[in-house]
C-alpha cells in the first residue's frame, strides 16, 4: 500500500495482559498473531489472511498509562515532526529508531490525545484497510476541535475537508469524499470532565450485531448499543483490559 503524508499507516495496542489480548482479538476478528524476534521486546503482529493489520506490545508498569490502541500517522521525518509538534504545544513521549524498520514517534497532542508518527524504512504498515477484520477508519474525538484541526494541518500536513460545522456536529476529514482516510470529531459536549481526547480505530466486520455479542462473550464490553449511522452500522467497545476500539459493518 502507498500512504500519503499524515495518513494512518499503522496501529498497535499496549496491553497489560498480552495473552488475553491475543485471545480476544484473534477470537473476535479471526486474526493470526506472530511474535517478533526477542530483540523487539516480544512485539506481536496481528494479520488477517496473511496481511498485517496491527500490532501488540506489553504495557509498562507506569500506573498512569491505560491500555490503548495508538494510531501512527505517516511522516517524512519523525524528528522534524517531533520538533514541530512541541512547538505547537504537544508533548513528545517516545522518539526512537527501530533497527532498519523506521523511526517511531509517540506524542500527546495539545488536546490530550495520544497519537504516533512513523517514518518508514522497511516496515510495510497496514497491508489492507478494507473488509472484515481490517482497520477501515481512524478518528480523533477531541474536546478542542479547532485546536486539533489546526494542529494536524500544521504538524502532519493534513489537507482537510469540513463535513459539518454546527453546534450539534463538527467533523473534519483528512482527504475529500471517498479519498478521506481519517477524521477529527468535536466531542467537547460528550467527553467527561476528566476524560482526555482520544484516537479511535475502527475495524470492519461482516455483521455488527453478531460481533457485538462476540465482544461480550470474549470478555469485552460495549460502550453503547450498535446503531445505524449515515456512515454505516457501528458500535463502540472496550477490550477485556479497557482499550477502546470501534466496529463498522462493511459490505
Automatic annotation (TrEMBL):
<dbReference type="InterPro" id="IPR029068">
    <property type="entry name" value="Glyas_Bleomycin-R_OHBP_Dase"/>
</dbReference>
<feature type="domain" description="VOC">
    <location>
        <begin position="7"/>
        <end position="120"/>
    </location>
</feature>
<dbReference type="InterPro" id="IPR052164">
    <property type="entry name" value="Anthracycline_SecMetBiosynth"/>
</dbReference>
<dbReference type="Pfam" id="PF00903">
    <property type="entry name" value="Glyoxalase"/>
</dbReference>
<dbReference type="InterPro" id="IPR004360">
    <property type="entry name" value="Glyas_Fos-R_dOase_dom"/>
</dbReference>
<protein>
    <submittedName>
        <fullName>Putative enzyme related to lactoylglutathione lyase</fullName>
    </submittedName>
</protein>
<dbReference type="GO" id="GO:0016829">
    <property type="term" value="F:lyase activity"/>
</dbReference>
<dbReference type="InterPro" id="IPR041581">
    <property type="entry name" value="Glyoxalase_6"/>
</dbReference>
<feature type="domain" description="VOC">
    <location>
        <begin position="134"/>
        <end position="250"/>
    </location>
</feature>
<keyword id="KW-0456">Lyase</keyword>
<dbReference type="InterPro" id="IPR037523">
    <property type="entry name" value="VOC_core"/>
</dbReference>
<dbReference type="Pfam" id="PF18029">
    <property type="entry name" value="Glyoxalase_6"/>
</dbReference>
Amino acid at each position: 500500500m502507498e500512504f500519503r503524508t499524515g495518513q494512518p499507516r499503522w496501529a498497535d495496542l499496549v496491553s497489560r495482559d498480552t495473552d488475553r489480548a491475543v485471545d480476544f482479538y484473534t477470537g473476535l476478528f479471526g486474526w493470526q498473531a506472530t511474535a517478533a524476534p526477542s530483540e523487539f521486546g516480544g512485539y506481536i503482529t496481528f494479520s488477517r489472511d496473511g496481511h498485517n493489520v496491527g500490532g501488540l506490545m506489553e504495557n509498562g508498569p507506569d500506573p498512569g498509562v491505560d491500555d490503548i490502541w495508538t494510531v501512527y500517522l505517516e511522516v517524512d521525518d519523525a524528528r522534524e515532526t517531533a520538533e514541530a509538534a512541541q512547538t505547537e504545544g504537544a508533548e513528545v513521549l517516545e522518539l526512537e529508531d527501530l533497527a532498519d524498520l523506521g523511526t517511531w514517534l509517540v506524542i500527546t497532542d495539545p488536546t490530550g490525545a495520544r497519537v504516533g508518527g512513523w517514518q518508514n524504512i522497511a516496515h510495510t504498515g497496514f497491508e489492507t484497510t478494507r473488509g472484515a477484520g481490517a482497520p477501515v477508519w481512524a478518528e480523533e474525538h477531541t474536546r478542542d476541535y479547532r485546536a486539533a484541526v489546526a494542529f494536524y494541518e500544521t504538524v502532519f500536513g493534513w489537507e482537510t475537508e469540513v463535513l459539518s460545522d454546527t453546534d450539534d456536529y463538527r467533523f473534519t476529514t483528512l482527504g475529500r469524499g471517498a479519498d478521506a482516510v481519517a477524521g477529527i470529531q468535536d466531542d467537547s459536549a460528550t467527553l467527561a470532565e476528566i476524560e482526555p481526547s482520544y484516537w479511535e480505530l475502527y475495524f470492519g466486520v461482516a455483521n455488527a450485531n453478531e460481533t457485538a455479542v462476540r465482544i461480550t462473550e470474549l470478555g469485552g464490553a460495549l460502550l453503547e448499543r450498535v446503531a445505524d449511522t449515515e456512515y454505516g452500522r457501528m458500535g463502540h467497545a472496550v477490550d477485556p483490559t479497557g482499550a477502546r476500539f470501534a466496529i463498522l459493518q462493511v459490505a
